[in-house]
Design goal:
The complex is a heterodimer of chains A (about 375) and B (about 250). With about 375 residues, chain A is mainly α. In chain A, about 75% of the residues lie in helices and about 5% in strands. Chain A has helices spanning about 5-30, 30-55, 60-80, 85-110, 110-115, 115-120, 145-160, 165-170, 175-180, 185-220, 230-255, 255-275, 280-305, 315, 320-325, 330-340, 360-370, and strands at about 130-135, 140, 345-350, 355. Chain A starts with a helix and ends with a helix. Chain B is of the alpha/beta class and about 250 residues long. In chain B, strands 5-6-7-3-8-9 form a six-stranded mixed beta sheet, with helices on both faces. Classes of the chains: A mainly alpha (about 375), B alpha/beta (about 250).
């Protein structure tokens, strides 16, 4: 592995963590789609900034593009506040307007700006090591890494220092206002951070795939924990996992690194969605199956109690009859009996008759007197 | 009625897009009393509470809290929003929500410490939720959620408690717990203004009442103004539980 390979991977991780941290609050504030709007419309700021600075990592360009992102948020709110359109429609109206102007500018002045549409949409993380910071001849590493590293640091600092304010304004904006923490100030401060992060990540992974890195890791982490600090840590960890696995998948399959990173963040989300311990789909199915068995066992004990000590028990307390009585399918009845036996609720005597244990009798009585 | 006014509202009008929600309200809330705000749906009860703390833009009029502007007395006011106004799936614990009540006194950046934590535990004990302190908030029942909000307001140690429907959809145990806390607040000479829906419990729980339907119909002591006539004027003839309250309403 060369130094360039390491630099690309380091950049991928810094981008992923830098996106995942603000992404947590985007998901909690139900603003996932706003990140999509921002990541598109910053393109206009990038193009305009590029005309002036002619360098994709210049602070001027980052500032201009960040401002476009914040402008998008403001325009969406302004349009929504007219009450003529709903919020989702307002989002869908604003960002294509800004994005399309950017696309027109790029196509019209493509030769002059050296900014091609593929790089804009997909990023060029593989080329990041070629654009380096040099001060009086000394090589200080890739420019993208410095930019994104600064943005990651900004995210860490803002989220740590203003953790309490972000949490309060996100959970209960009304109380935040009442206590003197202007929710609007918190909102726009945070959206500035999101925009700047999207601009920094744009250079590496393009304007569209930023959304995957911002939303998928927090959405996955949300299924794994119910505490905000852990949610932030886990989002960063899952983002790192997506970045590194994406890099290696891209190398193995010789495909776009950015595309592969975004895909892997989707794969990570899907895996968590399926296999999360409590809130995963598989866990949910298993717990429903267990509940079904547990309920059927209790039904079985009440049935046995009903006929206990009665001549009818000879007929009613047999496995074959249960299938008919409860309309249990052929394989479900044995599983219920096995489950009830294992719980110590019933025993099977030598003649194949099911009998209640004292514990089973108590469970059935308890059930019937509820 | 000689006690000083905690809230003074003069000629308050609030409108949403030329549509008046509150129209020319004059109101004084006296200190050390429990005041209910009642009225039909859309009467502007929530808006009235929100306008006291500047949560809604005011078209005209003046609101004074403890004789000053709300901004100057924030720390003396505890606001309990409607339970449904927040996302209870938010990833946080019961004690963490209660601690949010301490944020105002802490100001920007400073975090709650041992003192705030002790106050939060004490508030949770008052509402009977000390065993739930580390519980995820999504696991709470509606009544428990309401008591968490109440505990959050209690640690603000305020002079004025503004509550938006504290009894909305709560169990009997929560209702008793809230009433006990309200009475304790009154014993300490503090003031409560609560939006309230169940007319039949107004005389039992509250000292004063504000009858509201966009305009203020009446306000004052429950014995004086909680009358069938005023209720009819407020609800336009369709008075819920009128039979139940009519007898109690007459002195």
């Amino acid at each position: 592995m060369t130094v360039a390979d390491l630099e690309i991977q380091l950049l991928a991780v810094v981008v992923a963590v830098g996106c995942a941290l603000p992404g947590v609050f985007l998901v909690l504030r139900r603003m996932a789609l706003v990140s999509d709007a921002i990541s598109h419309s910053i393109l206009l700021g990038i193009v305009l900034g590029f005309f002036i600075a002619e360098d994709i990592t210049s602070p001027l360009l980052v500032g201009a593009a960040t401002a476009t992102g914040v402008l998008t948020v403001a325009l969406v709110e302004l349009l929504h506040r007219t009450r003529r359109v709903k919020e989702d429609a307002a989002i869908a109206l604003v960002f294509p307007a800004l994005f399309s102007i950017a696309v027109i500018l790029i196509s019209r002045f493509a030769e002059d700006v050296h900014l091609d549409l593929d790089a804009v949409l997909l990023g060029e993380i593989a080329f990041a090591p070629f654009r380096r910071v040099q001060i009086s001849g000394a090589d200080l590493g890739p420019r993208s890494l410095w930019l994104m590293g600064a943005l990651l640091a900004a995210n860490l600092i803002v989220i740590t220092v203003f953790f309490k304010e972000l949490k309060l304004a996100t959970f209960d904006a009304g109380l935040a206002h009442a206590l003197g923490f202007s929710p609007a100030l918190v909102h726009y401060g945070f959206m500035t951070l999101v925009s700047a992060t999207a601009v920094g990540a744009f250079d590496a992974v393009g304007s569209i795939l930023v959304v995957a890195l911002m939303i998928a890791p927090p959405a996955a982490a949300y299924l794994l924990t119910n505490r905000l600090p852990r949610l932030l840590l886990l989002s960063g960890a899952l983002g790192t996992l997506a970045a590194l696995s994406g890099y290696w998948v891209a190398r193995a399959a010789d495909v776009s690194i950015a595309g592969s990173m975004a895909s892997m963040s989707g794969v990570v989300f899907l895996a968590v969605l399926l296999f999360a311990p409590d809130r995963g789909i598989v866990a949910g199915m298993r717990s429903r199956a267990r509940q079904k068995l547990a309920f059927a066992s209790v039904m079985l004990t009440t049935h046995l109690l009903h006929h206990e000590g009665d001549p009818s028990a000879e007929r009613e307390s047999r496995e074959a009859h249960l299938q008919e009585h409860f309309r249990w399918s052929g394989d479900f009845a044995p599983r219920v009996i096995w489950h009830a036996e294992r719980q110590g609720l019933i025993v099977r005597d030598g003649g194949g008759l099911l009998r209640l244990t004292p514990l089973g009798r108590e469970a059935a009585r308890h059930q019937m007197t509820r | 009625m000689s006690a000083p006014a905690v809230v003074e509202i003069d000629d308050l009008t609030v409108a949403y897009r030329q549509h008046p929600v509150l129209w020319d309200i004059d109101l004084t809330v006296r200190a050390g009393a429990l005041t209910a705000v009642v009225g039909p749906n859309g009467a502007g009860k929530t808006t009235l509470v929100k306008s006291i703390i500047g949560l809604v833009p005011v078209a005209a009029g003046r609101v004074r809290v403890l004789g000053r502007r709300y901004r100057e007395v924030r720390r003396e006011v505890a606001y309990v929003p409607q339970r449904g106004s927040v996302d209870w799936d938010f990833p946080t614990s019961v004690i963490d929500v209660v601690l949010m009540g301490s944020y105002g006194a802490l100001g920007w950046i400073r975090r709650p410490g041992a003192r705030e934590r002790a106050a939060a535990v004490e508030a949770l004990e008052k509402v009977g939720l000390e065993a739930f302190r580390d519980r995820q908030i999504s696991q709470l029942s509606g009544g428990q959620q309401q008591r968490v909000f109440l505990a959050r307001a209690l640690i603000q140690n305020a002079q004025l408690y503004l509550m938006d429907e504290p009894f909305q959809g709560v169990d009997a145990r929560t209702e008793r717990a809230i009433v006990d806390v309200l009475k304790e607040i009154r014993t300490q000479g503090r003031t409560v203004v609560a939006v309230h829906h169940a007319l039949q419990s107004v005389p039992e729980y509250f000292d004063d009442v504000v009858l509201l339907n966009v305009r203020k119909v009446a306000s004052g002591g429950v014995e004086d103004v909680f009358t069938e006539e005023n209720l009819r004027a407020t609800y336009g003839g369709r008075v819920p539980f009128l039979q139940a309250v009519a007898g109690q309403g007459e002195p």
